[in-house]
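HUMAN: Ready with one sample?

ASSISTANT:
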Amino acid sequence: MQTIRLRVNDKVYKNLMRLLSKFNKEEIQVIEENDTFLSVQKYLEQELSRIESGSADFIDIEQLDNHLEATIRKYEA
């Protein structure tokens, strides 16, 4: 599946959305670029950049398990 990004004039937006709604979800999925989407996208781009530059910190599965257990204990009390 391919992704495209369009900037659409307000005058044609409703018509375009009506046209796109005629396709099923397997054919076309409309992805709204709201503030949450853009914020998550920026965060993921930064994380990818850290990984690619070698500055990211990684933990193994045992460290993750210990961290999760500590978090659960903290909120169970």
About this structure: The chain has a mean pLDDT of 93. The longest helix spans residues 35-53.
